[in-house]
# Entry
Amino acid sequence: MRALKTDLYQLTMAAAYFHRGFEPTRVTCEAFMRRLPPRRRFVMMAGLQRISTYLRDLRFTQDEIAYLREVPMLRAAMTPAFCDYLARFRFTGELWAQPEGTISFAREPLLRITAPIIEAQLAETFVLSVLNHGVKVASKAARVVLAAGRSGAKVVEFGGRRTHDEAAVDAARAAVVAGCAATSNVEAGMRHGLPLTGTMAHMWVMAHALPGVADQDSERSAFAHWVETFPDAASLLVDTYDTLRGVEMAIAAAGDKLRSVRLDSGDLEALSRGARKLLDAAGLKATTIVASSGLDEHAVARLCESGAPIDAYGVGENIVEPVDAPITGIVYKLVENHTAGRSVAKKSSGGKATMPGVKQVRRTVVDGRMVGDEIGLASEGPGGLLVQVMADGAVLPEAAATWQLEVARARAAAELAALPDDLRMIPGDPAREGQDGYPVEVSPLLEGLSQRLWSGADR
# Structure
């Protein structure tokens, strides 16, 4: 893995730790959110597989070390001894984390790393990059899935064209873990074993336009050619010219081979009702209706509340780049210096103070529903949401099994089903979304330790 996918200050601190003799110091750092993002009443864990692989394979190549020797701010620190350290660098620590698909809340550690301080420091940028992106996407996708679930409709992700190409691959996996039925991203399908879906673009229909030929005739020709090419996957985009006429053309061209029609513009409620009427009249009751066009969870909720006969929703940009919460705000902080035998905490004002100590999250579930969490010290007892993923720099086999796609999907579905009813509700009007929070308490031992450190009594 490329070690330079990091911030310069991680490397300057690594060099300073090395030259000041801090290299053996063993610490624990935790990643968490100080507060939930706007319009989020929970988040969903995602990205753990990529983080674990990165830490396992993290290396500095000779070319990277040569480049660092020429960075002005690092030049004086790039001594032969430090260069040799970088050449031998491996992650040897522990990783504990909430498994992918787990529901989480503010202040709860999503993961923690215990390692020599340079290793823990150099992990920060990549860990936060992957976590902030994966959690953002999975959390939004989960909300869309909850909104569609009230009518039994599926959600498919196709936001690849709205984000960076590599981000799109990770986003597709996070969305499918969160409950999306499929993705349109073929690279994600190959890399992660995700189910793929897709119809056609308007370009296919318009490519059949000829001088003197009516739009509907060229559309019917386009549909007929598509069905001839894909007789077992006749899913047709019908809104290039006139949506309901397009449905008629699709029926005429495909007949009982018409698997689905996709509506991508206009009044989706009215058009879906019109399309359903035409399909049923043609005896195509099994043909499904897919709706897209800038949808988010609130638009999906409104359509479900209206009773629109839509079987699946295609959501792209508002899953991969959600404008209502583009930043998740996960941070990574030092909480324990094991070598010094001391818990540490940030005392900053403005809501930036942190809680000290190696922590665990314990959840109470009654009759299959989550009723509250407690953040406490890991030493308070066994169990909790965070499980060990890596030991001595190696991924534990039992941990790797937890992020297998179907395992993670099943966990996410179970977690969403266990949410309290008020957290599961996604209203059609975002202004109606309540702000009542899920109870997350701090254990008395952790609260006492925090107060002593914040006050300066525990030195």
Observations:
- DSSP finds 17 helices and 18 strands in the chain.
- The mean pLDDT is 95.
- Residues 117-149 form the longest helix (33 residues).
